[in-house]
Write a structure and sequence with these properties.
The structure is a single chain. Strands 3-2-1-4-5-6-7 form a seven-stranded parallel β-sheet, with helices on both faces. The protein has about 250 residues and is an alpha/beta fold. It has one domain: 3-Layer(aba) Sandwich (Rossmann fold). The N and C termini lie far apart (about 45 Å). Helix 1 (about 15-25) crosses helix 9. It contains nine helices and seven strands. The protein has helices spanning about 15-25, 40-50, 65-80, 105-130, 145, 155-175, 190-195, 200-205, 215-225; strands at about 5-10, 30-35, 55-60, 85-90, 135-140, 180-185, 240. The structure holds acetoacetyl-coenzyme A. Acetoacetyl-coenzyme A binds next to helix 5 and helix 7. One of its GO terms (biological process) is monocarboxylic acid metabolic process. It holds the Pfam family adh_short. It is an enzyme of class 1 (oxidoreductase).
Length: about 250
């Protein structure tokens, strides 16, 4: 069997997801890139724009909220690749609104996509990692799951839930050498953040001691570290990269 390591990244075509894919590819991993639906044109355009080697990338397409479709897609990828060494649960959405104005739909969409999906995506891969006696799972949470954020009761609840999930799963994976950690980015220069109202982004920037947004590559580097040989003694942790916005 090939020695090459395989990493599956959900939300792969997004701002942080793309940088994670880039750094894993640069470090010799094969990448299974998850996106919500099959779109050959978008996939090809992404590969070309990012100058990724298409031979090293397999796409899987399913909404992380669709349990059956995602399970089938993951099982298919596992059968084709033979193994998955690293899972990065990166797919996530925001539906910001003050709680008094939030709809049940906004609540459910965020909980379903960001938290309920942890079961769907992680379970088949975790079982394989137990069999392999090795694996790394890295969950992308958020500073706002740690400190809370006005307008994000749904998102903060889901992201905090991911941290609890990370710790519990770390306990279950440890004896089979499966390490489970979370990375908590602060406000990062991606469409999720730049889509916010300009006055809101400006007021947030003023609260960040380092005075700027994170760059996606800075987040990706922490993920790569946790996945690599030198990250093997860290489990159940959450690594924060938030420019000092929240210090624990
Ligand atoms: N703390 C206290 N009060 C606040 C507040 C805050 N942080 N933000 C707004 N308010 C108050 C306002 O002062 C205003 O009060 P008044 O009614 O007395 O004037 C009231 O709440 C309404 O504020 P808005 O005019 O902003 O209301 P809105 O309904 O137009 O928008 C909102 C509400 C959508 C939540 C908007 O405030 C917003 O977008 N906030 C930022 C949410 C945020 O940080 N999202 C992060 C997205 S990126 C991400 O999530 C990635 C990651 O992991 C970090």
């Amino acid at each position: 069997m090939s020695e090459q390591k395989v990493a599956l990244i959900t939300g792969a075509l997004g701002g942080i997801g793309t940088e994670i894919c880039r750094q894993f590819l640069q470090h010799g991993y094969r990448v299974i890139a998850g996106l919500t639906k099959r779109d050959a044109e978008r996939e090809q355009k992404w590969l070309q724009t990012e100058q990724f080697d298409s031979a090293q990338v397999r796409f899987i397409a399913s909404s992380v909220t669709d349990h059956e479709a995602s399970t089938a897609a993951i099982n298919e990828a596992l059968a084709a690749e033979g193994r998955i060494d690293v899972l990065v649960n990166n797919a996530g959405i925001t539906r910001d609104a003050a709680f008094k104005k939030m709809s049940f739909e906004q609540w459910c969409e965020v909980l379903d996509t960001n938290l309920k999906s942890m079961f769907t995506i992680t379970q088949p891969i975790f079982v394989k990692m137990l069999e392999q006696n090795s694996g790394r799972i890295i969950n992308i949470t958020s500073v706002n799951g740690i400190k809370g954020q006005f307008g994000q009761t749904n998102y903060s609840a889901a992201k905090a839930g991911m941290i609890g999930f990370t710790k519990a799963l770390a306990l279950e994976g440890a004896r089979n050498n499966v390490c489970v950690n979370a990375v908590a980015p602060g406000y990062t220069g991606t469409p999720m953040v730049t889509a916010m109202r300009e006055d809101v982004v400006d007021s947030i920037k003023k609260q960040i001691p380092l005075g700027r947004l994170a760059e996606p590559r800075e987040i990706a580097a922490a993920v790569l570290f946790l996945a690599g040989d030198n990250g093997g003694y860290i489990t159940g942790e959450t690594i924060s990269l938030n420019g000092g916005l929240h210090m624990q």
